[in-house]
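Tutorial, part two.
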Amino acid sequence: MDTSNKPIVFLHGFLLDSSGWEVMNTSVFSRPLLFLDLPGHGKNKEIIPEKEQISAYADWLENEIKQREITHFDLVGHSMGGYIGLEMLQRTSSGMDKLVLFHSNYWEDSEERKKNRDRIGAVVRKNVRIFLNESIPLLFHVPEKYPSIISDIINRAAAMHPDAIVHSAQSMKNRADHRALVAMHKDRVYSIQGEFDNLISAKESEEDWPGHFEHFFIQKNCGHMSHIEQPDASAETLIKMLEN
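Running the prediction step on this input gives:
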């Protein structure tokens, strides 16, 4: 298949938006790139899907792809964006060929994590900045290196409607385990994890990885945000996965 004109779609994570990819030097990619804001995030003020399920966001993505008359694409899904990619992987007519789980995973939340997701609603409706000031720096291995970037992310996230934050959190809480799905489609699924990610253990991810060993990569010296913490290395890794 000629992939020269097949786009790479980038989906950001929870509380983030498409502007986060701007730090990475995307000019090194030879293929068309499409950066989308999820519903309720960034510049996308669309009505949030009614059901609190990742499948609702996949429905939205399918519609975006169809509107652009894209028949085939590869997807880089950061964190929550990867969960949406896994939902697309189940849909044989989605047109998605390769999926990169970019600081994302394929297992369902632990019971403790689910309880933490439930607490988000009360916190953000009381004082969203307290929640953001605590959670956003944890995405970085050494947050002290990125004060202006972290401040910008917090300000952008604070502009989100609380309902959008709660809906995203609940949808992530309600997602299913997709280990078997990844194993079934291991020729199409890749994983990039951060060496010092506070949210996802790179070591545990590597040990549990059900796909091809050569499709799994640990990005050094970064946390959950390697496209910002290690932008050149991240772009190089993605090119190896998607353009070679």
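The chain is about 40% helix and 15% strand. In part three we will examine how such features are distributed along the chain.
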